[in-house]
Amino acid sequence: MLKKILLLLVLLLLVGCLLFSLVENKENVPLQKPPFKVALLLEGKKDDQGWDNQAFKGLQQIERELHAQIIYKQNISTEQVQVAETKKLAEEGYDLIFGNGRSFESIFNRVAPAYPNTHFVFFNGKSNVSNVSAVILRRSQSDTFLVWSQD
């Protein structure tokens, strides 16, 4: 349960930071804000009663609390499909793309430089690009905790 809460808090923190950076208005001109667009790529199915299901619930909470426009894609499990879907979402103007699994590490680090207006987040790996972040879940003796990594 604590793991779910921590994961949700990290997701909300990341989205909040990204929202703040997107709406910064240095000239004090009234902003006509486009919808904040968030995508989730799942290696499996959203109703797997496991990791992908928890990520999907977090996406739904982002939609409810931040009024974001969301989309999710299921069974994105091969490298070819992961690359194609990642590029498609970035080209469609998604502000934030989550890849639910470490398999997205190399994909996001490779694709992200071509899409500087999109931020990419995956779990358990290392980010090598400024618009890519890794959320690392580590197990300690007492409980699970999160480490934020953005190089």
Automatic annotation (TrEMBL):
Keywords on record: Cell membrane, Lipoprotein, Membrane, Signal
Annotated Pfam families: Bmp
Residue intervals passing through the bilayer: none
Superkingdom of the organism of origin: Bacteria
InterPro entries registered for this protein in UniProt: BMP_lipoprotein, PnrA-like
GO CC list: plasma membrane
NADP found in the keyword field: no
UniProt keyword Membrane, yes or no: yes
Ranges for domain ABC transporter substrate-binding protein PnrA-like: 37-141
Compartmental location: Cell membrane
Protein's name in the database: Basic membrane protein
The organism of origin for this protein: Aneurinibacillus migulanus (Bacillus migulanus)
